């Protein structure tokens, strides 16, 4: 068999793998989109429709207006953006200190953060509830945001640290000689060099906070304060069979994270390669 | 740095030597926000619930110290065994799916190929979708009467009539864990892609010049080069598999029968349904101990000398 033929076979095999997996990946979403675009009485008809007919946006309108998903969207968005900005800044600064400087307590701090990553969050959800209650932060955006930030620090600190460890000492000395201080070096140089880490971390933070369910359910019992995942779950409880409505709400909830991911995705692999899998 | 410090302390300016705190406070300021938040919202609650795991913890009123009683109850509770067995099932079902297919896709998408960016993004999208949405799709697609899964299986003559996927604990859990594998393939793919990128390309070029075949290159460069990445992926997936919660919790709208329990849903139900907080806390720490043990064993497998540099 000629080399040329072998190449064609390998190439076709690759495309077959990709197409099979593309179908497996898309099919559930396709199913969901079709159902969300149909009048609700057709959601549970057999056979399931793969090519949609009689489309309507009624489910989307109902979810957004009658189902208050516009409001939940705003709640989710505010909390997620605040927790993502806060988490990025706080984890990044801690990583900077731990990575660039030797100071007393450094090892203990690092060990504490990494060690707690192994304890499941559910373990301390009750004390967190009591704590928020005592601080009068239950049912507040601030309370949930602070919990999200605190919970995200260990992993993201770890991610940033991998990047900061690689910045040569000479670069920092150059900044100091030019009259800068640590903050200048951190905010003007270190962050810029670490943009792949920032992009990776921002997407992971946004994704984690946007989809977080249990904390939002436990700490935000006031329906006014629900986030999207909690609202979708409540919709499921109230209208078990209205899949069109549930899927329309689900698709609304998926859009921001997918848009954000598509915008930043080219950084991610680089970010993970340098930050997490160095071995 | 070293120079400027010695100069400063040697210079006879009459200025008092900067104290330890003054030299370091700038660094601590960087670390302070993270430390304060973390001590308040994570460390304090962890210690609090650990202490309470030795008491008969009621939310209101006193919580008398009962020593190891809660822990003894945990170890003799048959439902704990079921919950761990179910988590193990998740481990067995979802990890091979993610590792095998994630690796396959990463290898295919590591080389220049038309539509590479599109496919990479597409396969990652399930990772981004929150469990509440995935569970809705799952319940719809795996429905016995109108679900797409049964329809496709019947149409392709693999089964005669619809399977009741939600008919028994094992069947339900296997199918929902398989869906978890589906959701996680993109994550594994991404980590493997990152791992592949850190294998130097000149290794392939040099071996190509020496006449190595594609298979030999795969066997002797790619496989050893991905060893650490694979261990990393498996360690994280194992921790994740034992931390399974959202899908099981959401499947039953928070009221899972004990046959379906995994450790975390049991912890949650013991606290919030049975209001048995002390027991729930003790179970949490048994669970944490198991996870730490699994992680330590697996980190031992990580070779000291990383082979990633080639």
TrEMBL record, chain A:
Belongs to the binding-protein-dependent transport system permease family. Gene3D superfamilies: MetI-like. It is found in: Cell membrane. Residues 73-264 form the ABC transmembrane type-1 domain. The keyword Transmembrane applies. The keyword Transmembrane helix applies. Keywords: Cell membrane, Membrane, Transmembrane, Transmembrane helix, Transport. This is Carbohydrate ABC transporter permease. The chain crosses the membrane at residues 12-30, 77-98, 110-131, 143-164, 185-206, 243-264. It comes from the Bacteria.
From TrEMBL, chain B:
It is found in: Cell membrane. Residues 84-298 form the ABC transmembrane type-1 domain. The chain crosses the membrane at residues 25-47, 87-109, 121-141, 185-204, 225-245, 277-299. PROSITE patterns: ABC_TM1. The keyword Hydrolase does not apply. It is a multi-pass membrane protein. The keyword Transmembrane helix applies. Keywords: Cell membrane, Membrane, Transmembrane, Transmembrane helix, Transport. PANTHER family: ABC TRANSPORTER PERMEASE PROTEIN, INNER MEMBRANE ABC TRANSPORTER PERMEASE PROTEIN YCJO. Belongs to the binding-protein-dependent transport system permease family. This is Sugar ABC transporter permease.
């Amino acid at each position: 068999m000629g080399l040329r033929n072998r190449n064609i076979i390998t190439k076709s095999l690759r495309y077959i793998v990709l197409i099979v997996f593309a179908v497996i990946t898309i099919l559930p979403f396709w199913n969901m989109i079709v159902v969300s675009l149909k009048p609700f009485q057709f959601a549970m008809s057999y056979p399931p429709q793969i090519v949609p007919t009689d489309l309507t946006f009624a489910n989307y309108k109902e979810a957004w207006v009658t189902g208050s998903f516009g409001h939940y969207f705003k709640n989710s968005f505010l909390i997620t953006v605040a927790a993502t900005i806060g988490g990025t800044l706080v984890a990044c600064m801690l990583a900077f200190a731990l990575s660039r400087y030797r100071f007393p307590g450094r090892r203990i701090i690092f060990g504490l953060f990494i060690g707690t990553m192994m304890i499941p969050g559910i373990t301390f959800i009750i004390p967190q509830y009591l704590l928020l209650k005592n601080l009068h932060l239950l049912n507040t955006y601030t309370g949930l945001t602070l919990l999200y930030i605190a919970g995200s620090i260990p992993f993201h600190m770890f991610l940033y640290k991998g990047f900061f460890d690689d910045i040569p000492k000479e670069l920092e000395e150059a900044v100091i000689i030019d009259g800068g201080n640590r903050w200048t070096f951190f905010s003007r140089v270190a962050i810029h060099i670490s943009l792949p880490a920032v992009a990776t971390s921002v997407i992971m933070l946004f994704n984690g906070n946007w989809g977080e369910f249990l904390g939002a359910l436990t700490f935000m019992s006031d329906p006014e304060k629900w986030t999207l995942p909690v609202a979708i779950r409540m919709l499921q409880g109230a209208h078990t069979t209205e899949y069109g409505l549930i899927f329309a709400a689900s698709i609304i909830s998926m859009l921001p994270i997918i848009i954000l991911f598509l915008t930043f995705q080219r950084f991610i692999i680089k970010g993970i390669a340098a930050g997490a899998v160095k071995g | 740095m070293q120079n400027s410090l010695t100069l400063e302390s040697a210079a006879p300016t009459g200025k008092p030597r900067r104290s330890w705190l003054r030299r370091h406070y700038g660094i601590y300021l960087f670390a302070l926000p993270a430390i304060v938040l973390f001590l308040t919202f994570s460390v304090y609650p962890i210690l609090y619930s650990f202490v309470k795991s030795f008491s008969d913890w009621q939310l209101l009123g006193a919580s008398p110290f009962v020593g190891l009683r809660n822990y003894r109850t945990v170890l003799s509770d048959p439902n704990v065994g079921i919950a761990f067995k179910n988590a193990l099932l998740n481990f067995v079902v979802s990890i091979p799916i993610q590792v095998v297919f994630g690796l396959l896709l990463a290898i295919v998408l590591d080389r220049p190929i038309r539509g590479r960016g599109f496919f990479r993004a597409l396969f990652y999208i399930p990772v981004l979708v929150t469990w509440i949405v995935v569970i809705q799709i799952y319940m719809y697609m795996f429905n016995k009467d109108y679900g797409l899964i049964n329809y496709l299986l019947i149409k392709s003559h693999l089964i005669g009539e619809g399977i009741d996927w939600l008919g028994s604990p094992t069947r339900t859990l296997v199918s929902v864990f398989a869906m978890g594998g589906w959701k996680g393939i993109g994550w594994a793919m991404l980590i493997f892609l990152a791992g592949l990128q850190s294998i130097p390309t000149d290794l392939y070029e040099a071996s190509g010049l020496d006449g190595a075949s594609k298979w030999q290159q795969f066997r002797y460069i790619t496989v050893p080069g991905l060893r650490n990445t694979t261990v990393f992926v498996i360690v994280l997936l194992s921790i994740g598999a034992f931390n399974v919660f959202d899908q099981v919790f959401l499947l039953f709208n928070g009221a899972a029968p004990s046959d379906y329990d995994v450790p975390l849903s049991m912890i949650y139900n013991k606290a919030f349904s049975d209001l048995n907080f002390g027991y729930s806390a003790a179970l949490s720490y048994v669970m944490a101990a198991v996870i730490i043990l699994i992680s330590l064993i697996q980190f031992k497998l990580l070779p000291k000398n990383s082979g990633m540099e080639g």
